[in-house]
Structure formats: structure tokens, C-alpha cells
Amino acid sequence: MTDRVIYATIPGVEVRLLSSVTTQLVAEACRRHRTTAAASAALGRTLTGAGLLAMTQKAHERTTVQFVCDGPIGGIVAVANARGDVRGYVRNPWADAEPLNGKLNVAGVVGGGTMHVGRELRRENGTNAEPYSGIVEITSGEIGLDFAYYLTVSEQIPSGVSLGVFVHNDTNRVLAAGGFIVQLMPGARRDVEEELTARISSAPHATEMILQGASPLEMLQTALGSSSIEVLDERDLRFSCNCSRERFLDKLAALPRADVDEMIADGTGELLTCHVCTEQYTVTIDDLRALVTDELVN
Ligand code: ZN
Fold this sequence. Notes:
This protein is α+β, with helices and mostly antiparallel strands. The protein has 10 helices and 13 strands. Helix 9 (about 255-265) packs antiparallel against helix 10. The longest helix has 18 residues, at about 35-55. The structure holds zinc ion.
């Protein structure tokens, strides 16, 4: 099943619903970065949360989520745009922590620190508007609760968040990933808030539903016990990095001339690796010579 994200509501109720299945993109991110099971869960939940937040934005806008943390994982970064491109990495993919009550110990690899969310916004005419950014303390380290805390405190929208990644015990492969966010918008009634909160807390875990083949909409229907959910927008999601050979060549071209000359003198060319997606690019001696020649022409 293709990864998908939906934006929905319940007619007559002041509620915003976001839900996604992200199994493929999380599996690809974890395969590329060779993460341990616990690091896969931390990275996958962050990628999923960023993808959900980006769904509330317009095309070409971008959401960046960063955990600056003191646990063995050292840091997590996820970037998502409204077109459904999601990318990210962790500082230490080998980070691990003893399982807790038979479950992956995500809080154990994340530890304490701060969570940063940046939202790039655009005006109708395409120019950049003042970006929005928020920072909160990492209160749980389980990622889902941290997103809920961020949305409630920093964006001031009371939110319930469920994010999950299911990793196979033996193969370390990601078999299910996804999650949902339930947000109470201004004007939501107190009794609605209490009922939704109670339903979310007794809902099955997101990955449990995804393993059974649930779509983003079916997840919401089950979690909220409601059949009247109306989907307002939906998009495909994918792991997609914005790196390219040209971008790396541009970076090399910006280096001091002496550095490039030194690489040419080495005589071996360069193998460059994107730290966000692990893609490798070969830069030959001829490429390097062309950079220097271009510079002279300019
Ligand atoms: Zn890349």
C-alpha cells in the first residue's frame, strides 16, 4: 500500500484530524541509515509527525522538526513539505537502549533536551512570509507525546497525538509505521473534548491497526469510534531527499580555490555522501577541473 496522509474533520465538530500510513517511507529511511530497532522507532515517529504537520501547510511550504537531545541517538531531524516529500536522519543510527516492559525504549535513546519546529510559510504571491518557529522541552522522549506537548503549548491547539513504528524482532525490518493527530480547534465544546480524549486514550495503537491493513481514514474511524469523518484533502507520502549531483558540485565550487586544487592534485576524485539520505555521488577529476575552469571564465 502506498504511503498516504489525510486531512479530515467531523461535520459540526470543531476538530481537525490528520492521519497517515508511513510504512514504506520509514522503512526506506531506516534501511538507508541502518538504524537499530530503537533508533528506527525514534526516526520513524519523527518523520511521521513531520509529515502530518506538513499536511496543514500549502504547497512549497516546509516543516522541519528537530530533537536536540542528550540520549545516545544524539539528535533527530525530519523535514517534510506539503507535496508529501519527507526526509530525515539521526545523528547516531547505532544508538540503542534496553527494552522497557518488552517494548522498544524510544525515550531511552532520545533522553532529554529540546524539540524545535520550524515552519516556512509563503504568501499568496509566492514570496516568503515570516517563518514560524517554536521550541519546547522534551517532556517524554517518546516523540508522540512530545509532538502533543509542542502543539498544545507552542501552537496553542490542544492536540492528541499517536505515532508508532513496528519493527520485526529478528530481521529489524520496519513492518508498520504511521499515526494520527486529533486537534481541538477554537470553539470546541468541553464535552466534545472530554469524549475525544477518552476515545483516543482507549484506541488501539496506530501500528496495530496498520498491521491489520487499516487506511489513514479507517484508523481515525476506529480510534474515534466515528463513521461521520469527512476527508478534506489527501496526498501520497514518500521518502525523498533534495540532494543532487549538481548541488554537491555547487558546494564544491563555493570552496576556496586552493582546496579544489588540492583535490585535483590527489588524483583520485571524491566520493561524497549526503548525510540526510546516504546517497553517494562520485565527483571525478574532470568534474573538479571543470569547476576551476568555470571559475576562471566567470
Ligand atoms: Zn540526500
